[in-house]
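FORM 7B: Structural annotation worksheet

SECTION A. Query
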Amino acid sequence: MNIFETHAHLDFDDYKHDREQMIQKAFKVGVKNIINIGIDEKSSRDSIKLAEQYPEIYASVGYHPSTVKIFNEKVVYELAKHKKVVAIGEIGLDYYRNYNPKDMQKKAFARQVEIACEIDKPIIIHDREAHEDCFDVLKQNKAKKVVFHCFSGDVAFAEKVLAEDWYISITGVITYKNNDLADVVRILPKDKFFIETDSPYLTPVPHRGKRNTPEYLTYVVQKISDILRIPPNLVAEQTYQNAKRFFLQEAF
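SECTION B. Predicted structure
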């Protein structure tokens, strides 16, 4: 089984005692590639360092809605030049936790979208209870290569995203009770979605409540397999190929 982990935060302190062992466990279950995600300057630099240590790991760089008070566009430009940086993100808007004023979030988000478009890098979107504003900023800046990380919208919003030729990424939330993601998964074109853990968060059932790791992507694969009634290997391989094409520009 080939699995592409498109969103993890393995630089976080949650893994400081067993990072190497955790990564190796993920490789053993079929995880072939991992994108480690930046949320500010430090985590972006740490993501690059991690990517330099492993051929299979790549990095993204950017300022999350929670860190836009310290947004520095020069840092994004500088770090995005690194050969292992495959995307700008995670960037976007968060009106649930409302870490920073909406205007501040929008300004930093829009500028990072502009940078991504200018340097032709894919964009990884953090969107929490800000669907329409995220969509509008992307449209206003004519963004082309976009993935909505940890998709949390309904079918109508998914259709709106897909109509722009953008992508949707599914997490362990798909394994939780009382979520509507199964309906979203059923309408996804096979070449327009990825899978991710968002480790250390959103741990899938049956490990919910514990620290998440890329090893647990197999549960996300299995749940999507059950929903679509296709073999797990097909889900894994399709999303693997989708991510290779989108992030690494490698066509199969």
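SECTION C. Observations
The longest strand covers residues 85-94. The chain has one domain: 3-247.

SECTION D. Sign-off
Analyst initials: ____
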